[in-house]
Design a protein that fits this description.
The protein is mainly beta. The chain has one helix spanning 104-107, and strands spanning 3-7, 10-13, 18-25, 33-39, 46-51, 58-60, 68-73, 78-83, 92-99, 115-116, 120-125. Strands 2, 4, 5, 6, 9, 10 and 11 form a seven-stranded mixed sheet that branches.
Length: 126
Amino acid sequence: QVQLVESGGGLVQAGGSLRLTCAASGVPFSRYSMGWFRQTPGTEREFVVAVSWSGTTTYYADSVKARFTISRDNAKNMVYLQMNSLKPEDTAVYYCAAGANNNFRQLRSVRGYDYWGQGTQVTVSS
């Protein structure tokens, strides 16, 4: 059974930092690209960042470039999202996802992923 479990969300002031963690089980982790998406009520799930199987290639949404950093540890089946200089507009539920491809055009879309976590709430106060 595939499980992706996010943690690390919370309430932070604007300008602060949070580190999200996604723990994966039930999948050959090193064969999956991993991504983070976010969603606010009434909107579609928005791409944030993706990392390739090996961790050597990353792709960021323009809105988070230079502020967020994705990394992965294939030995631990973990993926991380370091979020710095947070803004109120970063407030959302953040979802971890796993996709069995390395095509970043696909990985920018929810359709590029096979498995999803339940999400973790990030709230940035002004």
